[in-house]
Write a structure and sequence with these properties.
Helices cover 31% and strands 14% of the residues of chain A. Chain A has 496 residues and is of the alpha+beta class. Chain A has one domain: 2-Layer Sandwich (Alpha-Beta Plaits), CATH 3.30.70.20. In chain A, strand 8 and strand 9 form a beta hairpin. The termini of chain A are far apart. By secondary structure, chain B is mostly helical. Among the domains of chain B are: 95 residues, Cytochrome Bc1 Complex, Chain D, domain 2; 101 residues, Cytochrome Bc1 Complex, Chain D, domain 2, CATH 1.10.760. About 2% of the residues of chain B have low confidence. The chains are: A alpha+beta (496), B mainly alpha (303).
Chain lengths: 496, 303
């Protein structure tokens, strides 16, 4: 057992209102520089929809992630052999058109335009070329099902749905969508790290944050092709790649990352997971239907004395172990099993988990009045507007079992709370539903509390970073003590 | 001498030494410049003649590419010669009748102006030619055998021409810049100016085996002189090369533009083949996703 700690995340999709506040918080802090205008380290997608970049989930096109061949785990996009032949032209590189061309508007024209018979307009200007452009797409062009016949209908997750189901999904009165916020998953088997020829990408030992060293990056862009979630971006101005850093300067000082902190729906949870790194390869090679369970089994119980001993042996600090014991992520993923990894069939073993969303109540028009389809308060899971198959493609590698389990448990908790707080449903029925959903009243209360009544400190259990120890490895913290002046960060070179 | 002045002198000597060290390259260059030109004029003139003139001219050895210079001082006066030699083309452009006559007898070949010819040196050379004409010594024109070439000569010559056998003194092979009609394939080099790059008819231009042989012994154009000055072609090598040229003259037409067309077509074919190969090797490469998706859906909508 090789115990490591990972700062992991849960996004509760049932709470997401799609306001994009997270995206803006991230953009304002990290990606408003030249060359980064088109990057959205955090973005919110509407599902069904093609997302950003367009159809990123289609790995037949983008060749991201891993695949198993002859019992070996291999990157889809590159290998030591392939990289030689593709060194000057990576054949799986998305173009700017597949993201979008960033733009601003010619606002000055509103003030400087010569007097005329029409109101002046502010034409869009490309932030890359500086020329006037016709805007053809944006990072959330298909937001709220905008352009559905083109975008929503091309969602790769619709694979396996019957034509009838597809038609119903977009029929008036049945139309449905939900939001899917995305950041870097800080995977435990990251394809970007594996693909980098320069060794610029690395997974931080103390908290598993995947970072890209700007000094070592040589702009080969293998990571951009390799990441199946397309969350590494190429800065065309600096010629180096960049990615979500999970706001590590904030995390190290005990603050939640900007997108977590700003989330108005409070959908985001952050906490430490302890996992067994020696099992990564074995788990990543499992067949599709066992991947979710395999990854769960890799996550370790932070109360288990053997795990704690293993963690200590690996240099995991006491405060981190303590933090792991309070982790909301551990509860959602491992204890309650209602949070699932996105597209685990890409085999990068993401460390960001999603609680799948409940669909809105189904209704239909009857003689000018709206009637609920179901006599019961909440409709049957199987008859939800979002077909189970669609959610399974997104969160279960195409297999419905784990998704159904998570949705059933959520529905049971709702019934149970309804019985307790409103009382218009029978408590006995609610308790029976809990039992059927593999849930106890205590667990239901805990889920309810962490979902609805969670405070800041409940959602974000951030381990102390102990940067002083990390720094000690490279330099003596007392080096400048009692020294004169402010000293130099890097020693100046003098002479010829 | 008091201690102060002693220190002063030692410091001065040191700074002089520093100046000398810094200027050592300049001083060396100056020394070469100052001392090199000094030498015996007659010996110098003979060497210069051999190096620069003997490729086309003899003194009493008969006509090569250019006329025999024996008694040239009786044919034209010193002033005319000194005007003609540094720039023959100017005289012809001016329509000097004797210069035009020379051009005609040389079948249109104009003498390349010799390199490094100063007024003083020109006088030395003319003095030298005058003296040697009077003495009756023969300069140049010999060396190349008159015997017919054999099959063996042809094989050797072809090797030397194409560079499969290197020239013994290390000069570059003829094919680098020249071609002949018998080479076949894409022919040889075309770096030499037109029409000199094609050596098939060089005998007609320069005036036979003897003249071309003399040229090979000491080429006079700036490019060839620089290449062969320190790496001369040996007499037996020259004979073999001449055999190749004579064989080409007898057995083929001029190297014409057909190889150029071949070259173009091969390049075109190669490019197409390359593109097809790359297209096949990278057939699964990423192509536009969003653009093609939107266009496809819009087309479907119109139907």
């Amino acid at each position: 057992m090789d115990v490591r700690s990972q700062i992991a995340m849960v996004f509760h999709l049932d709470k997401c209102i799609g306001c994009h506040t997270c995206s803006i918080a991230c953009k304002n802090i990290w990606t408003d520089r030249r060359g980064t205008e088109y990057m959205w380290w955090n973005n919110v997608e509407t599902k069904p929809g093609t997302g950003y970049p367009t159809r990123w989930e289609d790995q037949n096109k983008y060749a991201g992630g891993w695949e198993t061949s002859n019992g070996d785990l291999q990157l889809k996009s590159t290998s030591k052999r392939k990289v030689v032949f593709n060194i000057f032209h990576n054949p799986h590189m998305p173009t700017m058109d597949d993201y979008y061309e960033p733009w601003t508007y010619d606002y000055q024209h509103l003030f400087n335009a010569p007097e005329g018979s029409d109101q002046p307009t502010a034409r869009p200007i490309s932030m890359v070329t500086g020329e006037f452009i016709n805007i053809e797409s944006g990072p959330n062009w298909d937001d709220d099902l905008g352009g559905s016949p083109v975008y929503a209908e091309n969602d790769p997750n619709l694979a396996g749905l019957t034509p009838e189901q597809r038609q119903q999904l977009f029929a008036v009165e049945r139309l449905v969508f939900f939001y899917f916020p995305r950041i870097c998953n800080h995977c435990s088997n990251p394809a970007c790290v594996a693909s980098c020829p320069s060794g610029a990408l690395y997974k931080r030992g103390e908290d598993g944050i995947v970072l890209l060293d700007q000094k070592r990056c040589r702009g080969w862009r293998s990571c951009i092709a390799a990441c199946p979630y397309k969350k590494v971006f190429f800065n065309w101005s600096t010629g180096k790649s960049e990615k979500c850093i999970l706001c590590f300067p904030r995390v190290e000082t005990g603050q939640a990352p900007a997108c977590f902190h700003s989330c108005v729906g409070r959908i985001r949870y952050l906490g430490v997971l302890l996992y067994d790194a020696s099992r990564i390869e074995e788990v990543a090679k499992l067949p599709d239907d066992q991947l979710v369970e395999g990854q769960r089994s890799m996550l370790l119980d932070p109360f288990d004395p053997a795990v704690i001993a293993g963690a200590r042996a690996n240099g995991v600090t006491e405060s981190t172990i303590e933090s792991a014991q309070k982790s909301p992520v551990y509860q959602f993923v491992k204890v309650w099993k209602i949070a699932l990894p996105p597209h685990i069939e890409f085999r990068t073993l993401p460390m960001l988990f999603y609680v799948p969303p409940m669909s809105p109540v189904m209704s239909h028009m009857e003689e000018k009045t709206k009637e609920h389809n179901s006599e019961e308060l909440f409709h049957d899971i199987e008859e939800a507007r979002v077909p189970m198959k669609f959610l399974a493609n997104l969160f279960g590698a195409g297999h419905e079992g784990k998704v159904r389990y998570a949705l059933k448990k959520q529905k049971a908790v709702r019934w149970y709370r309804r019985a307790l707080t409103v009382g218009d449903v029978d408590l006995a029925v609610a308790l029976r539903m809990l039992t059927e959903a593999d849930c106890t009243p205590e667990e239901a209360d805990a889920i309810y509390k962490l979902t609805s009544l969670c405070s800041f400190d409940d959602r974000f259990v951030i381990p102390p970073a102990h940067r002083e120890e990390a720094i000690q490895m490279f330099e003596d913290p007392l080096e400048h003590k009692q020294g004169a002046g402010f000293g130099f960060l890097s020693v100046p070179h003098r002479g010829m | 001498m008091n201690p102060h002045s002693c220190r002063y002198w030692s410091e001065a000597a040191r700074s002089l030494a520093v100046v000398l060290v810094r200027l050592r390259f300049v001083l060396a260059a100056a020394a070469i410049f100052l001392f090199l030109p000094a030498g015996a004029p007659a010996q110098d003139a003979a060497a210069f003649f051999k190096q620069n003139c003997s490729s086309c001219h003899t003194i009493g050895g008969g006509r090569l590419a250019g006329p025999d210079l024996k008694n040239v001082h009786t044919r034209r006066d010193r002033a005319w010669l000194k005007q003609y030699i540094p720039n023959p083309r100017a005289m012809m452009d001016r329509g000097d009748p004797y210069a035009l006559k020379l051009l005609q007898s040389a079948q249109g070949v104009i003498m390349p102006p010799p390199q490094g010819l100063t007024d003083a040196r020109l006088d030395e050379i003319l003095n030298f030619i005058e003296a040697e004409s009077k003495s009756g010594r023969v300069w140049g024109g010999g060396g190349i055998s008159d015997r017919p070439y054999t099959a063996a000569d042809l094989v050797t010559g072809r090797g030397l021409f194409t560079g499969t056998t290197p020239l013994s003194k290390g000069g570059p092979a003829c094919i680098s810049c020249h071609t002949v009609g018998t080479l076949g394939g894409l022919g040889g080099g075309r770096l030499a100016p037109f029409p000199q790059y094609d050596l098939t008819r060089v005998y007609e231009r320069l005036g036979g085996r003897k003249a071309v042989g003399a040229w090979l012994s000491a080429p006079a154009t700036p490019t060839m002189q620089a290449l062969f000055k320190n790496r001369p072609i040996q007499t037996d090598e020259a004979f073999a090369i001449l055999a190749t040229i004579e064989d080409a003259a007898a057995n083929s037409g001029e190297a014409d533009a057909v190889p150029l067309l071949d070259f173009f077509l091969m390049g075109l074919g190669g490019a197409v083949l390359g593109l097809v190969t790359f297209g096949t090797a990278w057939r699964t490469r990423f192509r536009s996703v969003r653009g093609s998706m939107v266009r496809g859906e819009l087309q479907r909508g119109e139907e």
